[in-house]
Amino acid sequence: MFISEKAPAKINLTLDVLYKRSDQYHEVEMVMTTVDLADRLEFVLTEDGSITVVSENRFVPSDERNLAYRAAKLLQERYQVTRGVRIYIEKQIPVAAGLAGGSSDAAATLRGLNRLWNLGIETEELSLLGSEIGSDVSFCIYNSTAIANGRGEKITELPPPPTCWVVLAKPSQGVATPSVFQSLQLDHVLHPDTQGMVDSIKRGDYQGICERLGNVLESVTLPNHPQVQQIKKLMRHSGADAVLMSGSGPTVFGLVQQEKKAERIYNSLRGFCEQVYVVRMLGESTALE
Ligand code: C5P
């Protein structure tokens, strides 16, 4: 018996850091949304209790370093499940990119195994479990648009934004999230207008969304990665309505309403940047296939 789940990427429309907490985390406020670039996971039931992860992508580990593996282990232990699973991960989302690829795989594993192992866990409970694996996993349980608070695990869903095209460009280097947070100097950052972003989404105001994109972590990643700055510039010059780095980076995304414009940006970035994608924001009229 097997089942499959899609694990889509997320982008941050805003990412604000409010303060450094006394644990190893920062208190954040982020508006996140889902795009239709997705990994695909397949779950095959095993009766001997073993958990294995397999992927053709050489950057995907098959042990505890893999968040999907950790998700399966957590569910198995917490709910005293005696059966196991073989997880196949077909990777589409670039790794260490600021697109929550690993977190989304973990969330898809929680959803998938909830079905495969017949556990009957409610979505909110799955989201809470997800937070034990990583700060972005809670959001990824929902595959929607939401505001995330706390260290990222407190999720309040928002209506879907007006659909638009999203060009994603990932420079060759990866970025380590902990070191980006560690280097953040909060006294020097320009905080995004989170409430304005939420209101724009609720109004279905594409222009308002574009005007309010903001990410405080750009203040750390941009100076250290000139290529990210260059991609932002190139995207703007080739017609993107708004441009931002997602998460701790280094992926940059540009928003446009017309597919032709998205193609133009895609063409101007290819050759300059290894991985470029044209995807859609999951809005009212678009669903994850
Ligand atoms: O939760 P996750 O394991 O994805 O976080 C990775 C690292 O990123 C944390 O160990 C911490 O250094 C940093 N982080 C943070 N504040 C957050 C989320 C992550 O400082 N809200």
TrEMBL record:
Belongs to the GHMP kinase family. IspE subfamily. Residues 197-274 form the GHMP kinase C-terminal domain. Coiled coil: none annotated. ATP binds at residues 94-104. It catalyses: 4-CDP-2-C-methyl-D-erythritol + ATP = 4-CDP-2-C-methyl-D-erythritol 2-phosphate + ADP + H(+). InterPro entries: GHMP_kinase_C_dom (IPR013750), GHMP_kinase_C_sf (IPR036554), GHMP_kinase_N_dom (IPR006204), IspE (IPR004424), Ribosomal_Su5_D2-typ_SF (IPR020568), Ribsml_uS5_D2-typ_fold_subgr (IPR014721). Pfam families: GHMP_kinases_C, GHMP_kinases_N. Pathway: Isoprenoid biosynthesis; isopentenyl diphosphate biosynthesis via DXP pathway; isopentenyl diphosphate from 1-deoxy-D-xylulose 5-phosphate: step 3/6. It is an enzyme of class 2 (transferase). Its EC number is 2.7.1.148. It comes from the Bacteria. This is 4-diphosphocytidyl-2-C-methyl-D-erythritol kinase. The active site is at 10, 136. Residues 66-143 form the GHMP kinase N-terminal domain. GO terms for molecular function: 4-(cytidine 5'-diphospho)-2-C-methyl-D-erythritol kinase activity; ATP binding. Keywords: ATP-binding, Isoprene biosynthesis, Kinase, Nucleotide-binding, Transferase. One of its GO terms (biological process) is terpenoid biosynthetic process. Catalyzes the phosphorylation of the position 2 hydroxy group of 4-diphosphocytidyl-2C-methyl-D-erythritol.
